Amino acid sequence: MKDSHHEDQVEHEDTEKSAFHVEEIMNSFTPDEQKKIIRRVDIRLVVTMGCLFIVSLLDRTNLGSASVAGMQKELDMNASNNGYSITSLVFFVTYTLFQIPATVIIRKLGPRIFLAGIVTLWGGVMIAFGFVKNWESMAGLRAILGGLEAGLFPGSVYLLSTWYPRYELQKRNAVFFLIGSVASGFGGILAYGLSQMDGLAGISGWRWIFIIEGLLTCVLGLGSYIFLVDFPEEAPKSWKFLNETEASFIITTIERDRADTNIEPFSIRKYLENGKDNKVWAYAILYMLATMPSYAIAYFLPIILQNSMHFSVVKAQCLVAPPYAFAGMVMYIQAVYSDKWRLRGPIVIGNALVAIVGLALLGFLKDPAPRYFGIFLATAAATANCPAMVSWQSNNIRGQWKRAFTSATSIGGGSIGGIIATTVFRAQDAPNYIPGLIAAILANGLVVLVSILLTLKFNRANKRVDAGGKPIEGQIGFKYTY
């Protein structure tokens, strides 16, 4: 009894010392100084990764712009061989397969080396796109591109989740998406400008799109090594980005929020056992359903604008930009209030309903004006749901390896959404792609259903915790966000 009493006393003293140490770290900086530290993290982390996301989206979605600039004709992509759809699809096969290994590698190698390396490598692959002789060669290069790009998005989502508390995360995810999505929305304008190099050095205009954008990717990949930062516990090593006390402040903030900054030794068995949690797969399904319409818009919008709505090549490429600019504003405003209100599910449901309206306007009206308005609604809703969903899953998952696994499965689900988009938008359905648009509407309907079921599940779990039941995610006081 005496030993037990002594152990309890020692544990109580250790807890008091730990609490005192936490308060000491948090009081090391004034509120203004804390904001400045976080702002430095935002600039070095969110902005840099947003710039990499720009080239990621440009490099995976510039097929549409190259298509209207003459690629399909020159490479003999037609309805009989489905060359365009196959070339679009193979990217997502390797992109899906390499998601889970990528999140393990980024944890082992560190974000700076891993992310800068894969971006530079895929820039080289993009340059090679400009010199292919047939669509089969391009499809092969697209498969390589998918394997390399597999590491950026899940790695970025995971890295962001390690740096920010749960209810400061969606704003950062939104800015990350905002930088990439809005800038890539202007990719059509960039592609049109590059296509005007047609004939220079005997190279077709659509080839210059890949060559110049590939060079841009290589430059950003190499430059990102200087600006990217590693995980919070390794921050002082990242070009003296933060000192020990500043890094301790970040780590303490995360620890107080969800107590999962300590990482366990990697075990493949334990890593894969995270797949036993059904909400991990629910988030993967949600992201698959949400990204299917998003990818469909990115890949086929220039073609629909040109062939179905009868805009010229230049207008088809340039009219892609305004909906993405609008989507960026919607996405950020939504993220601010989502973090403030600590809501995720209702935001996702609302976006899906708006997307259904937008897709219906685009698919079933004849007048170009309301159809173009539908593009605004569908693009904004589909784009805004991406940061909303990754923030939702990040809020409800604890543990470093489980967060890495869930980031990979979620983004892997998104890549399957890309596969679905490229298969349901078939060449024989051009120029209106009605079956594909119906599939996109159904996908958003399922987003509503799955989100409602998850919200009910989380609500019941939180009520059990309030009643003194088993802790959620193994952490006393932790509650699900819904």
From TrEMBL:
Molecular function as annotated in GO: transmembrane transporter activity
SUPFAM superfamilies, A to Z: MFS general substrate transporter (SSF103473)
Major facilitator superfamily (MFS) profile domain: residues covered: 45-463
Domain of life of the source: Eukaryota
UniProtKB keywords: Membrane, Transmembrane, Transmembrane helix, Transport
Membrane topology, record value: Multi-pass membrane protein
Compartment annotation: Membrane
GO cellular component assignments: membrane
Membrane spanning residue stretches: 43-63, 83-106, 113-132, 144-163, 175-194, 206-228, 280-301, 313-333, 345-365, 371-392, 404-427, 433-456
Protein family per UniProt: Belongs to the major facilitator superfamily.
Name of this protein: Phthalate transporter
